Amino acid sequence: MSTTRPCPPPGDPGPGADGAASSGTSGAAGSPGVVRRLHLVGVSGAVPMSRDFTRQALYDWGWLPATGADHRAAAEDVLLVVSELVTNACLHADGPEELRVSCAGKVLRLEVVDLGAGTPAPRTPHRAGRPGGHGMFIVQRLCLDWGVVRNESGAGKTVWAELAAPG
Fold this sequence. Notes:
The protein is about 30% helix and about 25% strand. It is of the alpha+beta class. The protein is globular, with a radius of gyration of 15 Å.
């Protein structure tokens, strides 16, 4: 798991995505490859809203309802990673601007855009018994890969993560 692999260039919605986007909290049902976008600027309750938005995408793309323990675990991992990424943007980057969710084949991609200057990284050494500071450690453990891309304008970044679809 690396934080150095760049995400696709600006304007490229992610692996296998066709560039279509949905606005608000809906998207084309059953359309993997579509990038779903949730605008979060000034939103109260960004974390639960992001989880609900992502959960609906998982239903539309057939990840939910889970058909077994592996499928349930995969969906729960996605929802946990969304929570961690959006929470980090809320706590350390003056709030998230947008959540993007896309699915291409066996990979689901999450992107959280914010205007923060910091760069998320797992805390080292990781101390399991201490409260707080576990978000990026969790992301690193659950994801196939993740990384950070600075906005070309210089203000802000996109934190992205990719998770495997259930087998």
